[in-house]
Design goal:
Blueprint: E1 2-6, H1 13-23, E2 28-31, H2 42-50, E3 54-56, H3 60-65, H4 76-88, H5 91-98, E4 103-105, E5 111-114, H6 129-135, E6 143-145, E7 153-158, E8 163-168, E9 175-176, E10 181-185, E11 199-205, E12 210-216, H7 220-229, H8 234-242
Parallel strand pairs: 1-2, 2-3, 5-6, 6-10
Antiparallel strand pairs: 1-11, 4-5, 7-8, 7-10, 9-12, 11-12
The structure holds zinc ion.
The site of zinc ion (ZN) has 7 residues, from loops.
């Protein structure tokens, strides 16, 4: 089975469409949260995902839109975008966001899906091996797929030494996942933050036991124009050009 793994789409439909087209054939989609927030097309992104064979979970921006999180915890730009998004969403799509779980152990047993971290699924950023190491105690499966930081990375765990290491994911290069425990972040579809503005995603091949990261260019200027029309905060528009 080929599974398309996406995270942090952030209502960037042009990027999501490009990723889906670039991915070619796949059987299912796993989405690691933050479908909305920041970007100009929240309804269309949710509807696109709903049209696919999808397993999705909730991110902090999804919860912010639902008032499940205190918006005071967001910076002013993110807060403004969350309020704008709430005004845009249809009742049906708000209900869909409401139903998203915080954590998904998949039917394939080997994987746990989470937005932030296994310890604090909605909020914690796994940005260092030290934080990753602690989090390996908070899930049972060999592999946990996470999002939230918008930076593609794999953390490996060495239980004997209680040590975790971090490696960047290398695009187009399959990562073997048959052995060992790992936490893997595919990066962000709609707002990359690793200095590379191209959309990031991954394909999990459950037969070959590999996860392959990809990057794909999308029409950033077209997304930025939509954001300008929606009067979303200028800083959120500018950052897409730089991938931060
Ligand atoms: Zn995000």
């Amino acid at each position: 089975m080929r599974i398309l793994i996406v995270s942090d789409i952030h209502a960037n439909l042009i990027a999501l469409d490009k990723v889906i087209a670039h991915a070619g054939q796949f059987d299912r989609v796993w989405c690691l949260g933050d479908v909305v927030g920041y970007g100009p097309d929240p309804n269309a992104c949710i509807e696109k995902l709903r049209s696919l064979d999808l397993l999705s979970l909730a991110g902090n921006h999804d919860w912010a839109v639902l008032d499940k999180l205190d918006l005071e915890e967001f910076n002013p730009d993110a807060r403004r975008a969350a309020i704008w998004t709430r005004e845009q969403l249809s009742v049906r799509n708000l209900d869909w966001l409401h139903a998203l779980p915080e954590r998904v152990p998949t039917q394939l047993e080997k994987f746990t899906l989470i937005h932030g971290s296994p310890r604090y699924p909605i909020w914690e950023y796994v940005l260092t091996p030290a934080v990753a190491r602690i989090n390996f105690d908070h899930f049972d499966t060999p592999i946990c797929l996470v999002g939230h930081t918008h930076v593609p990375v794999v953390y490996r765990y060495f239980a004997d030494e209680r040590r975790a290491t971090a490696e960047s994911l290398i695009e187009n290069t399959p990562l073997a996942i048959a052995n060992g425990r790992m936490m893997i972040n595919p990066g962000s579809v709609g707002q990359p933050r690793d200095g590379d503005p191209r959309s990031a995603y991954a394909i999990l091949d459950t037969d070959a036991q590999t996860l392959t990261p990809y990057r794909v260019e999308y029409d950033i200027v077209a997304t930025q124009k939509k954001m300008e029309q929606a009067q979303l905060p200028p800083r959120l528009i500018a950052r897409l050009s730089y991938g931060w």
